[in-house]
Amino acid sequence: MGFSIEKVIMIAVIAAILIGPERLPQAAEWLGRTARKAREYIQGARNRVEQEVGEDFGEVDWKKLDPRQYDPRRIIREALLDDAPVAAPAAAAAAPRQSAPIVAHTFSSDNLPPFDDEAT
To answer: What is the pLDDT of residues 7-24, one digit of tens each?
Structure first.
């Protein structure tokens, strides 16, 4: 997070001045309790993950599983440029392909295109 030791000391000094000498022991106690609880919570979560994943938890390459490394544009480009032929079903491969004729429609003010007012 970009905290250096100088920044931490400066924050501690400012907090001590703002809190005051009367409430400083209670604030330090609260901070210690909160840090212990956070450490216990994190350790418990880590233990649960280790139990669910199993013995291979330490061997997992987490950087490889990072979703930020996957660029959808690159994945699509590689899939489209892939030279491997796609296997066609046997019936489709045996029958000759016939394409439907392309018919261009022209519309005018008398002949309007179809419109579905329920779809909007």
So the answer is: 989 988 898 899 888 898
Q: Are 15 and 27 in contact (CB under 8 A)?
A: yes
Q: How far, CA to CA in Å, does 88 sit from each of 30, 65, 80, 82?
A: 68, 32, 17, 16
Contact 27, 19 (CB under 8 A): yes
Alpha-carbon gap, residue 107 to 102, rounded angstroms = 16
The pLDDT tens digits for 44-80 are: 998 898 888 777 777 777 788 788 888 888 888 888 8
Q: Which of 2, 22, 24 is nearest to 13 (CA)?
A: 24
- Residue 12 has, within 13 A of its CA and on its CB side, a CA count of 9
90, two tokens: 């046997």
